[in-house]
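Quick board copy: two proteins, each given as sequence then tokens.
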Amino acid sequence: MTILNNYLIKILQISVYLFPLSFIFGNGSINLFVTIISLSGLLYYKTDIFKWHNKYLLFVISFFFLLIFFNSYYHHLFIETNKDAIKSILYFRYFLLLLVIRALILNNDININHFLKICFIISLLISFDIIFQFIMGKNILGNSPIEFTRGIKYFSGMFGSELIAGGFILMFASIGLFSVFDFFKTEKKLIYLLIFFISTIIFLISLILAGNRMPLILFIIFLSVFSLIYKRKEKIYFLFLSFLTFILATIIIINSESLYKRAANFYLGIPNAFVLFEEIQKKYPKLNKYENSGKPFHTLEEFNSTDNYRELAFFSGHIAIYITSVDLFLDKPLLGRGIKSYRNNCYKKVHLPNRVCTNHPHNYVLEILNDTGLIGLITIFYFVIYLIFNNYKDYMANISSKTKISNWIYLAIILSLFIHFFPLKSTGSFFSTFNSSFIFLILGISLGLYELKYKKYSN
């Protein structure tokens, strides 16, 4: 049994360290790593993964996953068929991922500094590849930039036709950056501060070139919040860095026609909350006969004669997506309709003006509201905010002197959770493989950090 356990823990450690690499190769690779980590962790820790100091937190996160399952199958069995209901069962793999990552941290079976270093190196390689693609016209794999409309290019590097390079860099650079202070140990603070600054600029430039506008904005917010909550005298340097990145990003965008077009389109497309709620409150009784028909409003006879109709500018399309999402949520506000419900129900609303069907609502809050209702949203955000608050308390109390976990790691996890649950951001699907794998990885680390102090010092 000891030999088996030795193999299992080695498999676990290697899988977690290489986990960031799986995001480059797509969902199949990510799911393979999640499965390996979850199953080997279950075999190694067995029932110990359910032994929590704070049983209330275990109940909260368990309730969230059970709610997804209950909503999905209740709606599937008693209201209307939901082809995605099976995904609510498969989604439990992220619950297992969270439990195993937490156990690894809690039992000191993994070196988080090593993990952050790997995140840093991979993020730098992806960033250099994007910059290389910009300079040479092709990346190291021979991929050309993507051009959807004339004059607007997206430098996606190794990700080819998928526009997820910005999301990847934001995910792993935002935690990997803090490995700099362990990577380059020196008494001369100016050296590691300089390396941190240079790395930040490299990530900033690659985010601008990648064309994913929200990750760029969130990266600047990440730096700003970091500089505000950092508690030592070097705070002034990080405040200057966050200001510098904002100015530098502005200068680069203004002086590039392609980047300026993307930025202008993004700015004009920012959803106006007042317009959104005004549109939601409008009634279109003459269109009731088309309810659930799936016929888009622009194809109806009443298209040009509907009372109160005001065509909203499309731009990025987010305003129409958000209106549709809020409209669907208001039909089932407490529990929602189950996993992936937006894409399975948006056809019911497209007969109304300014509604549209897409795969997901492009906002975590709206997607969770659609799938799990207010109860689900309150549950998961309570869990996240609780962890952010307590990790921050531990950071301020300098708990690292007892747990032997660097304060930089606490900052990395706090800021990562903050920017990934930032409620106003437009983003991919919360329930996608790409996002859920990272989210529950970070939540698992955060949980482990939170409970580590209780295990070591409860006596």
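And the next:
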Amino acid sequence: MWFTLNYMSGEQITNSTVETQNLEGELHSLKKHPKKERVDINVLLNKVRLAQKKEKMESTIFFGLIAAVILVTGIIVSI
């Protein structure tokens, strides 16, 4: 019984495409990649640095706008 539960046919092992059906009923086939692609650490680090730079710029602009609103409000109130 153990042998029959863990047995897989050759068709299941060698099948490299999977067909899926979306909500509209259309069939799509997805191919599995037989080899794994390597990830370059420098590319990942550059993406993180770019995201941090963008976040820093956004926060600087945000605090600049807040300071401008406070300054303009102070000038209007003092008049």
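Board note added afterward: The CA atoms of residues 18 and 30 lie 5 Å apart.
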